Amino acid sequence: xxxxRTFRRLGALTLVTxxxxxxxxxxxxxxxxxxxxxxxxxxxxxxxxxxxxVVLDGNRLLLNKLALLVGDRTVKTSLGNLVKQADxxxxxxxWTVADKERVPPSxxxxxxxxxxxxxxPSQPKTAANPLGCPYVxxxxxxxxxxxxxxxKAERLKAFSSIYQLSLAWYYTGKxxxxxxxxxxxxxxxxxxxxxxNPNLNFAxxxxxxxxxRGIGIIEFSYTFTQVLDAAAILSTxxxxxxxxxxxxxxxxxxEFLTWLRTSQYGKDEAAAQNNHGTxxxxxxxxxxxxxxxxxxxxxxxxxxxxxxxxHQIAADGSQPEEVARTRTFHYSTxxxxxxxxxxxxxxxxxxxxxxxxxPQGGSIFKAVDFLLPAATGGAAQWHYPDLNFTxxxxxxxxxxxxxxxxxxxxxxxxxxxxxxxxxxxPVRPAAEQLDDISTTG
Length: 441
Known about the structure:
By secondary structure, the protein is mostly helical. The protein has two domains: about 1-70, no CATH class; about 80-115 and about 150-440, Chondroitin AC/alginate lyase (Glycosyltransferase, Alpha/alpha barrel), CATH 1.50.10. The chain is built from 15 helices and four strands. The strands form two sheets. It has a two-stranded parallel ribbon. The longest helix is centred in the middle third of the chain and has 22 residues, at about 150-170. The termini are far apart.
């Protein structure tokens, strides 16, 4: 081994030893004590400090960088899979809501627009009834006409790319990744000609029925919290992302949070009893944490104990609201994405959702454990109907529960298959929906 490599490994090991005094994923995340003195805000120093992420554990990300220096195979393999995605994203986009053909009811293309995925025309389309009204619901069956409105698909591409590129820059230091992520962020959120207005007034509208619905907020819920984490990562000194950019994006996020908490659509979504309500809590708690509204964050998290976990998780760990759907495994794993991410936000805010047990004995851990037979054994071990059972959909939530101390989840992990793109959780340790998000509503 060369002297330089020896020095790097010894230095990394020293840093790992020092950093192990910081909390890991599964313990409340916190910035190092020196941050209060402003050390982490100094140019060049910020990259040695954990990112102030809202879902991801910044300390875990920092440890991953150090693990790469000493040749950790799991982290290296996971990063290789992430970089493959980033290499595609760095050549794509940028995306904007302003380039769609269909004009929202407001007349302003800067307003986000999407159609309800599971609603279909019930009558033949004629000159007198060109849309085939009225529309009727077919739960779990995607109407392909909804894809003709581009905002939803482009939002998914933009937000996923921003997340992948920011993480790839953080681990590799390649400036092109950071600059592209910053360009995508500014294009979607900040530049006057292309930015989205901070509202979802026209999300998941139903033709002939309404212009939008509170239910449409779910299209942003976890993917926007990924963008928040990406922005926090870029704020550790990424080329192409300035303090002015950071301030402007925090301003946009604050305006969006105000709309979410005061609009009727936002109030409707917050009142939902199933995964929609959970994702709304996760979205608003994450934005509040990112914008420095700590009291709001804690209030949302504390209310989620009775408002979400008490209602949504039965004593055996099943999720009654989700197993009533036509895609029972999909929606059970989907709601767990929201619950586990909400619990990770709680770690940052000092509210323990992982350890909370409801009056029936249900908990997030139990909800994960309920899925383990199917997650490890396949559809034959899932005793509810599902239109499109996808076994690997549970992987990230099993990872998250294992990190938080669930021994059953940890023992099951080697038996849960990875998605086609590989297991990315080691380098972006938070749950994602791993099956097809385009059909979720």
